[in-house]
Amino acid sequence: MRALFGIALLLCSVCVHAAPNEKDAIALAEKGAQFVRAHGKAEMIARINRKDPEFNQGALYLAMRDLDGITIAHPTTALIGKNLLEVPDADGKPFRQEMLALAKGKGSGWVDYKFRNPQTGKVEAKSTYVLRVGDVALEAGIYKP
User: Fold this and answer.
1) What dihedral angle (degrees, nearest 10) is formed by the CA atoms of 10, 15, 19, 20?
2) % of the chain exceeding 70 in pLDDT
3) Which candidate, 92, 122, 52, places its Cα nearest to that of 63?
4) Cα(20)–Cα(52) distance, rounded to whole angstroms?
5) Where are the beta strands (DSSP E) in 53-122?
6) Which of 3, 67, 75, 132 would be 103's cystine partner, CB 3.0–4.6 Å?
7) Distance of CA 53 to the CA centre of its chain
């Protein structure tokens, strides 16, 4: 009986911590956009950079890039202030250029590429939702199974 309870508890914790999906990424980007409109870009930058749990949920987190391609907010602080447009993913895809073009064009949409998952430490397939808000692009991505 104890073993069954343990298995049930484990299964429930897995359900609660299910991997984020497309809807979660869109919702996070839209939440960030609402925050920028209400509190300003500087406060959003500060929240992202300090890994505020409202905008950083492990593998799903919000990042911000200006329309010149410079990362201005990211939970990985080593990326802040850098223009990495010319740095491709593991397959050679210039994904950041695609993100920037999407932000400047349609203003929102998805970009697929490979990136290091902070939870596993491995390079994995990722899809990021890009949403332009004024003169910046918010980015929220999910790792694909």
Assistant:
1) -150
2) 88
3) 52
4) 17
5) 56-57, 60-66, 71-73, 108-116
6) 132
7) 13
